[in-house]
Design brief:
single chain, mainly alpha, two-stranded antiparallel sheet, 3 helices, 2 strands
Length: about 110
């Protein structure tokens, strides 16, 4: 029995196609995490360590290898750390906007243009 995708094409092995789509999704998510880490303010040594590990996992996925349990644990840790980095960036952005508003308020009250 064959299955059709959303464009009506017959899929010979829908499980393999779903697996390939999932792997591509993981690779895309991993590359987004890598960009976030690369742009983050964490120290260079830790940044390089994280990027090398993520690149290794991305390459394994791209070559069709499933990550091992150690990689899965490392990915969870990386996701948690990236979430922390993203939260710090959001906090910094909010603080920066608040400081800019304070400066504007003070400048306005002093008549500085």
């Amino acid at each position: 029995m064959s299955t059709q995708d959303t464009q009506g094409r017959k899929l010979e092995n829908p499980d393999k196609d779903a697996e390939a789509a999932q792997i591509q999704n993981w690779i895309g998510s991993l590359e987004k995490l890598m960009e976030a880490v690369d742009k983050s303010g964490i120290d260079a040594e830790r940044k390089n360590e994280l990027l090398l590990h993520m690149a290794s996992i991305r390459n394994e996925l791209a070559s069709g290898q499933w990550p091992n349990v150690g990689d899965a644990v490392a990915m969870q840790s990386l996701a948690n750390e990236a979430g922390s980095i993203e939260q710090m960036a959001q906090d910094w952005q909010a603080l920066s906007m608040q400081i800019a508003q304070w400066i504007k308020t003070i400048s306005d009250s002093l008549g500085v243009k």
